UniProtKB/TrEMBL annotation:
InterPro entries: Collagen_mod_GT25 (IPR050757). It comes from Notothenia coriiceps. One of its GO terms (cellular component) is endoplasmic reticulum. This is Procollagen-lysine,2-oxoglutarate 5-dioxygenase 2-like. GO terms for molecular function: procollagen-lysine 5-dioxygenase activity.
Amino acid sequence: GLWNIPFMAHVYLVKGSTLRNELKERNYFVLGKLDPDMALCRNSREMTSHREKDSPSPESFHMLRPPKGLFMYITNRHDFGRLISTANYNTSHYNNDLWQIFENPTDWKEKYIHSNYSRIFTENVMEEPCPDVFWFPVFSQKACDEIVEETEHYGSWSGGKNE
């Protein structure tokens, strides 16, 4: 659906021309003791420069005739992407995204898990090139390349011994 809402927080999708023209004149994030997100919503709704003639003022606001400012809508009709967590993003690795398996699991799976991985559970996609050796897709080519790069950047491979 699509709904007109009075307040929203955290994420906004705003037309560039609106930011450059309508919202450039004053600080819309400040209004009394309101939090910045609530101030933006209220200031945008109550903009006087966009009111139609004979539109009610905020003081005479009535549900059947709301003021003609910038209205905010929330929709579930479109997927605009998702937010990623950067709170624990470590930049000390060669391929930093490779280490985000627990912080951003959906993005990590899309990037590093082979597209046919789930088929090993529903179909017989395992190959057996010789007895007791099984091939099946787990990692994407990108994951394999980045694991090799990460190991080479670290400076050593496992010696293959249990020490």
